[in-house]
Amino acid sequence: MQRIAEVTRKTAETEVYVKLNIDGSGMSNINTGIGFFDHMLTLFSKHSLFDLEVTAKGDLNVDTHHTIEDTGIVTGQAISKALGSKESVSRYGTAIVPMDEALAMVSLDLSSRPFLYFDVTFPGEKAGDMETEMVEEFFRALSVHAGITLHIKLMHGKNSHHIAEAIFKAFGQALRKACETDPRIKGVLSTKGTF
Question: Does the predicted TM-score (pTM) go above 0.85?
Answer without folding.
Answer: yes
